[in-house]
Amino acid sequence: xxxxxxxxxxxxxxxxxxxxxxxxxxxxxxxxxxxxxxxxxxxxxxxxxxxxxxxxxxxxxxxxxxxxxxxxxxxxxxxxxxxxxxxxxxxxxxxxxxxxxxxxxxxxxxxxxxxxxxxxxxxxxxxxxxxxxxxxxxxxxxxxxxxxxxxxxxxxxxxxxxxxxxxxxxxxxxxxxxxxxxxxxxxxxxxxxxxxxxxxxxxxxxxxxxxxxxxxxxxxxxxxxxxxxxxxxxxxxxxxxxxxxx
Length: 246
Description:
The protein is of the alpha+beta class. It is built from seven helices and ten strands.
C-alpha cells in the first residue's frame, strides 16, 4: 500500500481512503481489527500523529470503533439511514418524523421565563431584558437522540404556554393560538459540542455535530424565536437545490 507524499491530499486522508476502500470491498469485515497506529506508521512511512488522525477520521465516520485495551475494529454499518434535511425548507422535528414514518419523543430538559440577554434581544429586535421563554428540548426518533434544541421565544405572544405543551409539537401549539410561522434564517456550521450536548446526544468525545442557529418569523414579518439546534450528524445531513444561473 502506497501513498503519494507529493499530493495535495493530506496523508491521513489518503490512508483513511485506502482503509475505507478495504472496508467497503469486504477485505476488512465488521468485527475485524484494522492495523494499529504503529503498524500504519510502518506500512505508510508516516508519523504516529498522521496515523492517529486517519483512524480518528474513520471513528468519526462510524466505520470503526476503539475499544480500550483491545484495539480498533470495523463496526456494522448503521441500520438507520441518514435523514436528509433540505436547507431551502423549514421542517420541524415533527414534520421530519412524519415524513420518515417514525415516532418522535420530546423531552423538555429546561423550561423557564428569563430576561433576554443583549445578544438574544438584538436578534429578536426587542429591548434587552424583555421576557422570553427559554427551553431546552431533546428530540428522539424511536429510541435514538437526534436533536438537542435550545430556544428563546417571546413571552408576550404566548402568555399561557406551559412546559407540558412543549412535550408535543411547538409549532402545532403556535398555530393553535392563531399564529403562522413563515420561515427562518439559518446559519449552519459543524463543530464539536459542549460536554452537556455530547452526553445528551450519546456521542463520543471527538464526534462533531451540525449546529443550526435560526431566527424564525411569522407571516407578518415579525420575529418571535431564536434557536440553536444541534443535530446528531450520524443521523442527519443537509441538502440544498442549487440552480445554475442562466
